[in-house]
Amino acid sequence: xxxxxxxxxxxxxxxxxxxxxxxxxxxxxxxxxxxxxxxxxxxxxxxxxxxxxxxxxxxxxxxxxxxxxxxxxxxxxxxxxxxxxxxxxxxxxxxxxxxxxxxxxxxxxxxxxxxxxxxxxxxxxxxxxxxxxxxxxxxxxxxxxxxxxxxxxxxxxxxxxxxxxxxxxxxxxxxxxxxxxxxxxxxxxxxxxxxxxxxxxxxxxxxxxxxxxxxxxxxxxx
Length: 222
What we know:
four-stranded antiparallel β-sheet; five-stranded mixed β-sheet
């Protein structure tokens, strides 16, 4: 029977937390969010080859990195990895925003979800802000290459947009399923609670009918 082992880790070891999310990029295991005594705001990364912890990014204004129960995926844009998170609970509030982190730049961008279309569109626009302006080439060959790269860039962007849309749809479908399950559970409890009451009313009605019949029989005897 296989058993879990506990290898020693070192570096900036994170404080204990719960409700966090994790994703891997190469040998790096990235931990985002989660509740802890210090808020769990720092995004941590563990080098799985050396078991060294380090801080990828600290808490930034407008982004509740200490959110509990958030969803996290890894996608790519312009050939670089990006982390995309959604939802979670921060303090007393539930989040409905998309947050994007490009590990190479260690910066976070937020895109509020207004609806299914605009939410994905805003997330894509925020990711595109990470692009860098290419240097102009003077030779005709360089111009041709730049045009070819431009077509490839458009293709990659469309592919990334579709992946983001697919990921967002999966997240929204999961949330909708949870809401339907909760509504069904509440409805079932209401039915169970109303059951005894309906039975009592039926019994009272039957007693009234029997009392009325008994009274009529007595009148006939008289």
